[in-house]
From TrEMBL:
Pfam families: DUF979 (PF06166). The chain crosses the membrane at residues 6-23, 30-49, 61-80, 101-122, 134-152, 173-196, 216-249, 261-283, 303-321. InterPro entries: DUF979 (IPR009323). Keywords: Membrane, Transmembrane, Transmembrane helix. This is Permease. The keyword Membrane applies.
């Protein structure tokens, strides 16, 4: 069985290779940054087991590592090393030759993830291949590996080229690649410290909680606003679900938890399209594409964000209370 830990170990190995590449090139800050990230991916399950057994020092060291990552991101110059002219010309020639075929492997990832997930649910024997306890993530991991093989086939690249180009992309993204994980953790911390209860009290004073529509609008607006502030819908979701979704919409008005959760997360993504805090989605692409306007991606996405918000509100009103 492809346990989810295997994919985490694979990510840890890739981060280690990236760190070694940087250290070899005397980019010590970048190398140390990626080297610190190897630890939670390679030993995360052991840290959780130790913490559950009452041994807290490994988790405390991981907390110190997070602080060190923040210091390195603030003080060091993370980013990809300068291209050689011959390397740049080689990539441009390859892009001209392959053209839109370059997108095929990337498009395979969501398609294969969906097919593997559905197969894991309905086909007998798939539970012996995919980790049923983390079916979505194991499907995504296997789909990514298959897409990498497809990219090999399309580009006819050298065997180690995926590592070199993956490292180059990771260096280009830099600290922004950590934002989804860190902000999701921040949302969990907010929920655990009672921020959701505070929001529930504030909402109860501002809106008529007996109105289902008012509660729904507050939940949707809160998901968008908190996502804009924190940069990630994963961070906003536990706070808004604890403060508005669970006590008001589900318990008081009888909303369906599954559809409310799914559409609520999608509503949060409307905020992702509108915020520079989602740097890995909105700022890094502008840098990589060398756009003159660093907020050009956000401006282009704003109409889609508001249109999607309106559609999500209609879907929640229709589906969550059937």
């Amino acid at each position: 069985m492809l346990k989810i830990e295997y994919f985490y170990w694979l990510i840890g190995a890739f981060l280690l290779i990236t760190a070694l590449f940087n250290l070899r090139e005397r980019r010590h800050a970048a190398g140390l940054f990626w080297l610190l990230l190897v630890m939670p991916f390679a030993f995360g399950s052991h840290i959780l087991q130790a913490n559950a057994a009452g041994v807290h020092w490994p988790a405390q060291w991981m907390g110190a590592g997070v602080i060190a990552l923040g210091v390195l991101a603030a003080l060091a110059r993370l980013g990809t090393p300068a291209d050689r002219e011959d390397e740049k010309q080689r990539r441009e020639a390859s892009a001209q030759r392959l053209r839109n075929r370059l997108f095929w492997p990337a498009l395979l990832i969501p398609l294969l993830t969906m097919l593997l997930f559905l197969s894991g649910k309905w086909l007998p024997g798939m539970d012996q291949i995919l980790d049923s306890k983390a079916l979505t993530l194991s499907s995504l991991g296997l789909a990514s590996l298959l897409a990498m093989l497809a990219a090999w086939r399309v580009t006819r690249a050298a065997p180690l080229e995926p590592l070199a180009q993956g490292r180059r992309l990771l260096d280009a993204l830099g600290w922004a690649v950590l934002l989804p994980m860190v902000l999701a953790t921040l949302g969990g911390v907010f929920a655990a410290t009672g921020i959701g209860d505070i929001i529930a009290g504030l909402v109860g004073r501002v809106i008529p909680i007996d109105s289902r529509l008012a509660c729904l609008l507050a939940f949707a607006a809160g998901m968008v606003l908190f996502t804009v502030i924190m940069g990630n819908a994963f961070a906003a979701f536990p706070v808004m679900m604890a403060g508005v979704g669970l006590p008001l919409l589900i318990q008081k008005h009888g909303a369906d938890p599954a559809s409310l959760g799914a559409l609520g997360m999608l509503t949060g993504y409307c905020g992702t399209l509108l915020t520079p805090m989602a740097a890995n989605f909105n700022i890094v692409p502008a840098v990589l594409l060398e756009l003159k306007d660093q907020y050009g991606v956000i401006r282009a996405q704003s109409f889609t964000a508001f249109a999607l918000l309106a559609v999500n509100l209609l879907l929640m009103a229709w589906l969550c209370f059937r």
